[in-house]
Design a protein that fits this description.
heterodimer, A: mainly alpha, 20 helices, B: mainly alpha, 3 helices
Chain lengths: 482, 98
């Protein structure tokens, strides 16, 4: 638990120091925690509340990376030193700590606690860290959304506990299956539990059709926080989904459990997210909204990988999370840097960015193309492996015909996304009447660009190391490794 | 157990209805508390009737209450920062904005 010590220590230390030092301290804290995670690696796998299984370090590394990049981004964007902004770092660190606990939780209680503790600092951030007039309602919406989703998730948990008599996920997995075989009357209750938990998680992740609860926040929040939310908080919700459904309710996946199966329900959610996320994305004129709906579509892809329910699916979902994190962090960093010198909000405002800074325009193109899934970039490998896993599942049995639909929607969505992003990227290099911006590149933001661009390009050409790392995730969910 | 669960389900449904119907934050929070009651009844009933070695449901209740209190407290920050919630949100008291 050296991690907790470092986090608390850095929290206490930074009470009376200025903004920059607070940022550097939290960067050091995150780095030290990362080193500890890599050194200790897989620990004991026999806990009740917290299990440090094979998949936990992978997700820990993902969350630490995202927090590191977001903190570095925040550090470079902030010139003014105020009482409010200094609290951003401890709150992000607290969220990070809760996420690290979430990766290890193997029990309904610890899962609930860590999921809530992820959300709490974000409520505080939502209430304090917004400057514009639209912020009050946005913060209120986020607060209501968090509360409602936590109550829905708990309602489902209470039924799962009641059915199995256990809170441990593995025990629950076995005992619910036993109860289902011995007593045939648990149908309605398990369906209620599945629906409640799924809708709670959908609210929490801000997925369609609940996207309006977080959309305002995305438009009004400081960019590093938005990036952290997209690249770390939503994956945390996806991880909770995987823990509850893929691990805990494993027995209720297939169509033979009709109507109590969750496979088709979640497939429908993923389908809606991919299709309507893409449709909404094509209509957007605001850059933040564009990325917001792109993120929703990407969550649909990750869900597709997860519910493919074979080891390739979970592995590809893990890879997707990393590829997505690198690309989306970079894209937000570019937007944030441009916004330092101009109040650019619409897609039009970014036209002719190459005149101000050619490297920035090229970087933005790389990130967006990776998000759309162009070959030789990390996003392509991610999308390809997710769709491949879905097709593998679809081919395994005629009952899983709906996976074909999902894969088809994924391919069409990737093509449309490429169209939209290519148009925008071409505009970045277009001619404009506006004067060139004077952009400043602090060292921290150069580090962010270096890491994200390297991640996007390197893992696109040579994805093996990351695939090997992500290959440990299926093991944690009980899938046999060949 | 059927009666307990029915009561809890009814309370939860009332709370959920309230969240969607109410327009101001205070009414929503009251609805949240009704839902919270439903959850606690659920967990307590399951703890009583399910054969288990440890009263996990009661542990759950304690954690739920603590976390819920924290969440409401964080919600209070929003009140503090943005003024009392009204139907139109922030427009009615713009002087609060910094």
């Amino acid at each position: 638990m050296g991690l907790v010590m470092i986090l608390t220590l850095s929290l206490v230390l930074r009470l009376k120091i200025n903004h920059n030092w607070a940022g550097y301290l939290s960067l050091i804290g995150i780095l030290l925690t990362g080193v500890l995670v890599v050194i200790t690696n897989v620990g004991s796998a026999d806990g009740d509340l917290f299990v440090n299984d094979a998949g936990a370090p992978v997700f820990k590394i993902l969350f630490l990376w995202a927090a590191f990049l977001a903190t570095a981004m925040d550090l470079s964007f902030h010139k003014k030193n105020s009482d409010l902004t200094i609290w951003r770092y401890p709150l992000v660190l607290l969220t990070l700590a809760a996420m690290l606990f979430l990766t290890m939780s193997g029990n309904l209680i610890s899962l609930y606690l860590s999921l809530e503790l992820c959300g709490l600092p974000l409520i505080v951030l939502a209430s304090y860290q917004i400057g514009s007039n639209a912020a009050g309602p946005a913060a209120q919406k986020f607060f209501v959304m968090t509360l409602l989703s936590s109550l829905l998730i708990l309602f489902g948990f209470s039924f799962l506990y009641g059915l199995s008599g256990a809170a441990n996920l593995i025990l629950m997995k076995l005992q619910i299956a036993v109860v289902h075989i011995t007593q045939r009357q648990i149908g309605v209750i398990i369906l209620l539990a599945i629906a409640a938990i799924l809708s709670g998680l959908m609210l929490r992740g801000g997925w369609l059709p609940f996207e309006s609860w977080v959309h305002d926040l995305h438009k009004n929040w400081p960019i590093p926080l938005v990036a952290f939310m997209a690249a770390a908080f939503v994956p945390a919700v996806l991880l909770a989904f995987a823990k509850i459904f893929i691990n805990g309710l494993f027995a209720f996946y297939g169509p033979e459990m009709n109507p109590n199966d969750w496979g088709r329900l979640v497939a429908f959610v993923a389908f809606v997210n991919i299709v309507f996320g893409t449709v909404q994305m094509l209509r957007q004129k605001n850059i933040m909204s564009l990325l917001f709906f792109s993120n929703i579509t990407q969550s649909g892809f990750i869900l597709t990988g997860m519910i493919s329910m074979n080891q390739h699916g979970l592995k590809s979902a893990g890879f997707y999370l990393f590829a997505f994190m690198f690309s989306v962090m970079g894209a937000y960093a570019v937007i944030g840097l441009v916004r330092q010198s101009t109040a650019a909000a619409n897609l039009e405002d970014f036209k002719g960015l190459s005149k101000s800074s050619l490297p920035l325009a090229i970087l933005m193109t790389v990130y967006l193309m990776s998000l759309a899934g162009l070959p030789l970039l990390a996003g392509f490998v991610a999308k390809y492996s997710v769709i491949d896993a879905a097709l593998e599942m679809a081919g395994s049995d005629r009952l899983y015909y709906w996976m074909y639909l999902l894969a088809g929607a994924g391919i069409v969505s990737a093509a449309l996304m490429f169209f939209k992003f290519a148009k925008f990227s071409a505009a970045l290099f277009g001619r404009t009447e506006r004067p060139a911006l004077t952009l400043q590149f602090p060292p921290a933001i150069i580090a962010v660009f270096a890491f994200t661009a390297l991640g996007t390009l390197f893992f696109g050409i040579y994805p093996d190391p990351l695939l090997t790392l992500a290959g440990r995730i299926p093991q944690a969910f009980g899938f046999i490794i060949e | 157990m059927f009666y307990y669960l029915s009561l809890a389900a009814a309370l939860f449904a009332i709370g959920l209805y309230g969240v969607f119907v109410r327009k101001n934050l205070t009414g929503m929070i009251i609805s949240f508390f009704i839902m919270l009651n439903a959850l606690i009844i659920n967990f307590a009933a399951f703890t009583r009737f399910v054969k288990s070695d440890a009263p996990i449901g009661l542990v759950f209740i304690v954690f739920i209450l603590v976390i819920f209190a924290c969440q409401i407290l964080c919600g209070g920050l929003i009140f503090y920062q943005w003024g009392a919630p009204t139907r139109n949100g922030i427009e009615e008291n713009p002087q609060i904005l910094k």
